[in-house]
Specification:
Largest sheet of chain A: 5 strands, parallel
Order of helices and strands of chain B: HEEHEEEE
Structural class of chain B: alpha+beta
Strand order of the largest sheet of chain A: 2-3-4-1-5
Oligomer: heterodimer
Largest interface: A-B, 13 and 11 residues
Structural class of chain A: alpha/beta
CATH superfamily of one domain in chain B: Ribulose bisphosphate carboxylase, small subunit
CATH topology of one domain in chain B: Ribulose 1,5 Bisphosphate Carboxylase/Oxygenase
Strand content of chain A: 5-15%
Largest sheet of chain B: 4 strands, antiparallel
Distance between the termini of chain B: 15 Å
Strand content of chain B: 25-35%
Distance between the termini of chain A: 68 Å
Shape of chain B: globular
CATH architecture of one domain in chain B: 2-Layer Sandwich
Radius of gyration of chain A: 24 Å
Helix content of chain A: 40-55%
CATH class of one domain in chain B: Alpha Beta
Strand order of the largest sheet of chain B: 2-1-3-4
Radius of gyration of chain B: 17 Å
Shape of chain A: globular
Number of helices of chain A: 14
Order of helices and strands of chain A: HHHEHEHHEHEHHEHEHHHEH
Chain lengths: 306, 139
């Protein structure tokens, strides 16, 4: 079709937007993910770009498919994997990827143990991810500068080739901590230039962490009473200053331990209780945490006394 | 003589889009897809050489197309077929199989009649190309 003929053609943006069903996903994103404003903004922009690209295609304007490889950088527990999962759904709804599944891979899935082992392994993972999104967690482990015979380089080359040549079939998302990803990109400039979208995941503020906790409890049919809410806010304020703080993941682990203490408390008391008691988390459940006594509340040593 | 076999033997050769659609149908049915090649296309030769392993756990046909093209590149003058295997209990058989590549020239088969006792005739087929050693057939 000649684009000139279609210039005066009227395009109903609202209808196209409704049709793509993307608003529902974006709303869900807003509802279920606390904070992450810059990330959400970027996702909206990408959704708009893809919608316009589709309309342009429909109007007969030639468009090159936008490159959508991304890198997610942020501290642990800031929601990188969760957003990647959502991203694959969004891209699927906008017709950018055909299937919309997410394949999560780490160095172990891509890099082999001996000569000639890497290429088939990487190829296998790439084939599985075709038509969807390949999420490479802690991507910097692929590149080990201290060992010049490391097989990671081979995997990187294959990845780069597919990212360039089979853009239609696959979207690659690299994730990891900010500083280490920066070194990784410096050492592999090919990656940096092939990735159009660099999304930085900010740390959550205390209010956001609290909102996350409430959301998690709500999904699991628990709730804080007023005292407990204050206690948990105090807990978070102490916990964020400790080492190994992993944002939402730490909140989830802390809540798991709180639930453990609640169960213990109820069993120890015995007798008869109403159903509301099964849902209510007490301040005492939280105050029992080691964090309040200046101890470290790490995940792996989380004993019932915590 | 144009060799035909498999599911779409009565149709003209499939285009790449049609192949991709058929492969996608296999994957949607949870049939692992395998690519096989041979230069000995006798109808009774069911053991073609496998191009890599059967592809399990794929969701999209693009991965299979990648392997088909790699196989075509390596063996441009061989027969290449794609098979979808239905592993469900009770079926456990090739559910779909079709040719995706064929040599430019196919000389066909020679029908040999062997006279036996009591005027019995035994028939056998011999591919003209198979007279030459494997690897040198078909150009």
């Amino acid at each position: 079709m000649n684009p000139v003929q279609t210039l005066d053609q009227v395009i109903d943006l609202d209808a196209a937007y409704r049709e793509s069903n993307v608003q529902a996903i974006l709303d869900e994103l807003d509802r279920e993910l606390v904070g992450l404003t810059p990330v959400k903004r970027r996702i909206r922009e990408i959704a708009a770009l893809l919608l316009i690209a589709r309309l342009r295609e429909r109007a007969g304007l030639s468009t090159e498919r936008p490159s959508l490889h991304m890198s997610f950088t942020g501290r642990p527990g800031t929601g990188k994997t969760t957003v990647a999962l959502r991203m694959s759904k969004i891209l699927h709804h906008l017709g950018y990827v055909r299937r919309g599944h997410l394949v999560v891979a780490t160095r172990d899935d891509l890099v082999g143990q001996y000569v000639g082992h890497t290429a088939p392994k990487t190829k296998e993972v790439l084939k599985k991810a075709m038509g969807g999104v390949l999420f490479i967690d802690e991507a910097y482990y692929l590149y080990r500068p201290e060992n010049e015979r490391d097989y990671g380089q081979e995997a990187i080359e294959m990845l780069l080739q597919v990212m360039e040549n089979q853009r239609d079939d696959l979207v690659v998302i690299l994730a990891g901590y900010k500083d280490r990803m920066d070194t990784f990109f410096q050492a592999n400039p090919g990656f940096h230039s092939r990735i159009a979208h660099h999304l930085a995941f900010p740390d959550y503020t205390l209010d956001e962490l609290m909102a996350i906790a409430e959301l998690m409890l709500q999904q699991q049919n628990y709730h804080f009473d007023t005292e407990a809410r204050l206690a948990f806010a105090a807990y978070l304020a102490l916990r964020v200053q400790q080492p190994h703080f992993a944002n939402a993941r730490s909140v989830r682990n802390a809540l798991d331990r709180v639930k453990l203490r609640q169960a213990n408390r109820l069993i120890a008391r015995g007798g008869q209780i109403d159903a509301g008691e099964l849902m209510r988390l007490d301040a005492a459940d939280i105050r029992a945490s080691r964090v309040f006594r200046g101890g470290l509340d790490t995940e792996d040593t989380g004993t019932p006394q915590g | 003589m144009r060799l035909t076999q498999g599911t779409f033997s009565y149709l003209p050769d499939l285009t790449d889009e049609q192949i991709q659609a058929q492969v996608q149908y296999c994957l949607d049915n949870d049939w692992p897809v395998a690519v096989e090649y041979t230069d000995d296309p006798h109808p009774r030769n069911i053991y073609w050489t496998m191009w890599g392993l059967p592809m399990f756990d794929l969701l999209d046909a693009a991965g299979v197309m990648h392997e088909i093209n790699a196989c075509r590149h390596a063996f441009p003058n061989h027969y290449i077929r794609v098979t979808g295997y239905d592993r469900r209990l009770g079926r456990q058989t090739t559910a779909l199989s079709f040719i995706v590549n064929r040599p430019a020239e196919e000389p066909g088969f020679y029908l040999e009649r062997q006279e036996g006792a009591d005027r019995q005739v035994r028939y056998t087929l011999r591919a003209y190309a198979a007279v030459r050693p494997s690897g040198q057939r078909y150009g």
